[in-house]
Amino acid sequence: MERHGQATQLPYPPIRITKQNKSYAQAMLDNMGGRVSEMSAVSLYFYNHLITEKFPEVAELFHKISVTEMRHLEIFGKLACALGGNPRLWSSKPNGRHYWSPSYNTYSLELPQLLKNAIQSEKQAIEKYQRQSERIKDSNVVENLQRIILDEMEHVELLTACYHSITKG
Protein backbone atom coordinates (compact mmCIF):
# COMPACT_ATOMS: atom_id res chain seq x y z
CA MET A 1 0.00 0.00 0.00
CA GLU A 2 3.03 2.24 -0.09
CA ARG A 3 2.59 3.10 -3.76
CA HIS A 4 2.04 6.64 -4.90
CA GLY A 5 1.03 7.66 -8.38
CA GLN A 6 2.19 10.39 -10.69
CA ALA A 7 -0.37 12.88 -9.39
CA THR A 8 1.48 13.25 -6.10
CA GLN A 9 4.61 14.24 -8.04
CA LEU A 10 3.00 17.11 -9.97
CA PRO A 11 3.30 20.65 -8.60
CA TYR A 12 0.19 22.60 -7.71
CA PRO A 13 -0.57 25.65 -9.85
CA PRO A 14 0.07 29.04 -8.28
CA ILE A 15 -2.76 30.76 -6.44
CA ARG A 16 -3.77 33.65 -8.62
CA ILE A 17 -7.02 34.79 -10.12
CA THR A 18 -8.16 36.82 -13.11
CA LYS A 19 -10.45 39.00 -10.98
CA GLN A 20 -12.48 38.76 -7.80
CA ASN A 21 -15.71 36.85 -8.18
CA LYS A 22 -18.07 36.27 -5.25
CA SER A 23 -19.74 33.29 -6.94
CA TYR A 24 -16.42 31.53 -7.45
CA ALA A 25 -15.42 32.44 -3.88
CA GLN A 26 -18.61 30.78 -2.61
CA ALA A 27 -17.76 27.62 -4.57
CA MET A 28 -14.28 27.54 -2.99
CA LEU A 29 -15.81 28.11 0.47
CA ASP A 30 -18.14 25.18 -0.14
CA ASN A 31 -15.09 23.10 -1.12
CA MET A 32 -13.59 24.06 2.23
CA GLY A 33 -16.56 23.67 4.56
CA GLY A 34 -19.56 22.23 2.75
CA ARG A 35 -21.02 18.75 3.18
CA VAL A 36 -18.69 17.39 0.48
CA SER A 37 -15.54 19.28 1.39
CA GLU A 38 -11.90 19.08 2.28
CA MET A 39 -12.71 19.72 5.96
CA SER A 40 -15.04 16.73 5.89
CA ALA A 41 -12.29 14.63 4.32
CA VAL A 42 -9.61 15.77 6.79
CA SER A 43 -11.82 15.10 9.81
CA LEU A 44 -13.09 11.75 8.53
CA TYR A 45 -9.60 10.53 7.66
CA PHE A 46 -8.29 11.62 11.05
CA TYR A 47 -11.09 9.60 12.65
CA ASN A 48 -10.39 6.65 10.34
CA HIS A 49 -6.68 6.85 11.16
CA LEU A 50 -7.47 6.51 14.87
CA ILE A 51 -10.05 3.74 14.40
CA THR A 52 -7.75 1.64 12.21
CA GLU A 53 -4.69 1.62 14.47
CA LYS A 54 -4.88 -2.21 14.64
CA PHE A 55 -4.19 -2.12 10.88
CA PRO A 56 -1.04 0.04 10.67
CA GLU A 57 -0.89 0.15 6.87
CA VAL A 58 -4.50 1.30 6.66
CA ALA A 59 -4.01 3.86 9.44
CA GLU A 60 -0.92 5.20 7.66
CA LEU A 61 -2.80 5.43 4.36
CA PHE A 62 -5.51 7.53 5.99
CA HIS A 63 -2.88 9.73 7.60
CA LYS A 64 -1.08 10.36 4.30
CA ILE A 65 -4.32 11.08 2.45
CA SER A 66 -5.43 13.47 5.20
CA VAL A 67 -2.22 15.47 4.77
CA THR A 68 -2.99 15.88 1.07
CA GLU A 69 -6.56 16.89 1.92
CA MET A 70 -5.19 19.56 4.29
CA ARG A 71 -3.16 20.93 1.38
CA HIS A 72 -6.36 21.07 -0.70
CA LEU A 73 -8.11 22.87 2.17
CA GLU A 74 -5.34 25.47 2.15
CA ILE A 75 -5.51 25.92 -1.64
CA PHE A 76 -9.27 26.42 -1.60
CA GLY A 77 -8.93 28.83 1.33
CA LYS A 78 -6.34 30.92 -0.48
CA LEU A 79 -8.43 30.91 -3.65
CA ALA A 80 -11.52 31.95 -1.65
CA CYS A 81 -9.61 34.87 -0.12
CA ALA A 82 -8.21 35.97 -3.48
CA LEU A 83 -11.69 35.78 -5.00
CA GLY A 84 -13.10 38.03 -2.25
CA GLY A 85 -14.41 35.47 0.23
CA ASN A 86 -14.01 35.10 3.99
CA PRO A 87 -12.26 31.73 4.53
CA ARG A 88 -14.45 30.46 7.34
CA LEU A 89 -15.54 26.85 7.28
CA TRP A 90 -18.97 27.60 5.90
CA SER A 91 -20.97 27.43 2.73
CA SER A 92 -23.63 29.76 1.39
CA LYS A 93 -27.07 28.38 0.75
CA PRO A 94 -30.28 30.15 -0.33
CA ASN A 95 -31.40 30.22 3.31
CA GLY A 96 -28.11 31.59 4.64
CA ARG A 97 -24.63 30.46 5.55
CA HIS A 98 -24.06 27.09 7.16
CA TYR A 99 -20.94 26.30 9.14
CA TRP A 100 -19.17 23.00 8.59
CA SER A 101 -20.28 20.22 10.93
CA PRO A 102 -18.74 16.86 11.84
CA SER A 103 -22.24 15.47 11.32
CA TYR A 104 -21.56 15.70 7.58
CA ASN A 105 -19.39 12.57 7.87
CA THR A 106 -20.50 8.96 7.90
CA TYR A 107 -18.59 7.22 10.67
CA SER A 108 -18.08 3.47 10.73
CA LEU A 109 -16.25 1.06 12.99
CA GLU A 110 -16.24 -1.74 10.40
CA LEU A 111 -13.14 -1.61 8.21
CA PRO A 112 -14.72 -2.56 4.85
CA GLN A 113 -17.56 -0.04 5.32
CA LEU A 114 -15.13 2.60 6.53
CA LEU A 115 -13.15 2.21 3.30
CA LYS A 116 -16.31 2.20 1.17
CA ASN A 117 -17.40 5.47 2.80
CA ALA A 118 -14.01 7.03 2.07
CA ILE A 119 -14.11 5.90 -1.57
CA GLN A 120 -17.61 7.30 -1.96
CA SER A 121 -16.64 10.66 -0.47
CA GLU A 122 -13.64 10.90 -2.81
CA LYS A 123 -15.87 10.17 -5.82
CA GLN A 124 -18.35 12.83 -4.69
CA ALA A 125 -15.54 15.37 -4.44
CA ILE A 126 -14.32 14.48 -7.93
CA GLU A 127 -17.81 14.95 -9.38
CA LYS A 128 -18.23 18.28 -7.57
CA TYR A 129 -14.85 19.65 -8.69
CA GLN A 130 -15.47 18.49 -12.28
CA ARG A 131 -18.81 20.36 -12.34
CA GLN A 132 -17.07 23.46 -10.99
CA SER A 133 -14.30 23.15 -13.61
CA GLU A 134 -16.94 23.25 -16.33
CA ARG A 135 -18.74 26.27 -14.84
CA ILE A 136 -15.85 28.46 -13.66
CA LYS A 137 -14.23 30.67 -16.30
CA ASP A 138 -11.08 31.65 -14.37
CA SER A 139 -8.35 29.46 -15.87
CA ASN A 140 -6.16 29.43 -12.74
CA VAL A 141 -9.02 28.37 -10.50
CA VAL A 142 -9.83 25.62 -13.01
CA GLU A 143 -6.16 24.53 -13.12
CA ASN A 144 -6.18 24.18 -9.33
CA LEU A 145 -9.45 22.22 -9.41
CA GLN A 146 -8.09 19.89 -12.09
CA ARG A 147 -4.84 19.32 -10.18
CA ILE A 148 -6.79 18.52 -7.02
CA ILE A 149 -9.02 16.13 -9.00
CA LEU A 150 -5.86 14.16 -9.89
CA ASP A 151 -5.11 13.72 -6.19
CA GLU A 152 -8.69 12.67 -5.46
CA MET A 153 -8.59 10.13 -8.28
CA GLU A 154 -5.38 8.72 -6.85
CA HIS A 155 -7.04 8.50 -3.43
CA VAL A 156 -9.86 6.46 -4.98
CA GLU A 157 -7.26 4.08 -6.46
CA LEU A 158 -5.35 3.73 -3.19
CA LEU A 159 -8.47 3.26 -1.08
CA THR A 160 -9.95 0.79 -3.58
CA ALA A 161 -6.74 -1.26 -3.59
CA CYS A 162 -6.79 -1.24 0.22
CA TYR A 163 -10.45 -2.29 0.26
CA HIS A 164 -9.74 -5.20 -2.10
CA SER A 165 -6.73 -6.35 -0.06
CA ILE A 166 -8.82 -6.27 3.14
CA THR A 167 -11.89 -8.02 1.72
CA LYS A 168 -9.91 -10.73 -0.09
CA GLY A 169 -7.42 -11.39 2.67
From TrEMBL:
The keyword Iron applies. The lineage of its organism: Bacteria, Bacillati, Bacillota, Clostridia, Eubacteriales. It comes from Clostridium facile. The keyword Iron applies. This is Manganese catalase family protein. InterPro entries: Ferritin-like (IPR012347), Ferritin-like_SF (IPR009078), Rr_diiron-bd_dom (IPR003251). Keywords: Iron, Iron storage. Coiled coil: none annotated. It comes from the Bacteria. Residues 37-162 form the Rubrerythrin diiron-binding domain. SUPFAM superfamilies: Ferritin-like.
